[in-house]
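It would be a great kindness if you could assist me with a short task in structural biology. A protein sequence and the structure tokens that stand for its backbone fold form the material at issue. I should value your view on which stretches of the chain appear to form regular backbone elements. The record follows directly beneath this note.
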Amino acid sequence: MKGKKKHSVRQTIAFLIFLAIALINVYPMVFSIFCSFKGNLEIFSSFTSLPKKIRFENYVTAWQVGNIGRYFLNTIILAVGTLAISGLFGAMASYILAKFRFRGKSKLYLLFISGMMIPIQAVLIPLSYLFGKMGIMNNYPVLMLLYAAFCFPMTVLILTGFMNGIPTELEEAMVIDGASIYQVFFMMILPLSVPGIVSVSIFNFIQVWNNLLFPLIFISDKNKGTISMGLLAFFGEYSTDYSASMAGICLTTIPVIIAYVLFQEKIENGLMSGAVKG
């Protein structure tokens, strides 16, 4: 009986801790939604109260002033291109690291994942100088490669662990049937790695979607701006439209929430498979 009581107490404490963590993470989103329907004065008069009047015009203002529609399209183009590059080449590198044996394999793997320790701020000045000298500012393909370079370490880390769990007998069977290494990869390894690719792609998508520093430094053409740059339009030198900015924040979080809801199961399966089998 004492053991059961201790177990129930531990479960209750754990539940309360996780509930507190959930509330801490959910509160900013709920706060933004409430404030997006308020006026500026109403926001400062009471942070926690419900809006007295639903102001849908805040979303209209956010869409027009922040140029959300155009920036949505630009950011999606950058995100899709980045996911395609990092997903394909990351899967190729992970396949080599997971299934092949060669000298320096562990050092090469360490080199790849060590990129996770490099902060973006550390490369901004040299990259901006280099891009300016080469005349490749406002260039989407270059920016996609830059995004993909910072997404590559996480991609290799997760996919290498995931591919380690794919039975080698499947590859051997295809090789015996006369398949080349490219056929093995594209016809067997890549389809089986879809859960892992989806998992890491969601994380990479969020990283690209929320990134402000790269477009702010490397994009000067307003027509090529991203969604994070659009939110800056609400913050002026002498005044700030907080209600419209909250509406803009809510609009920008919709794609991320939808992506996670649609692929939640594959994300969890991919992460669990990569963690356990790796």
Remarks:
- Residues 127 and 133 are 10 Å apart (CA to CA).
- Confidence is low (pLDDT under 50) at residues 274-278.
- The chain has 14 helices and no strands.
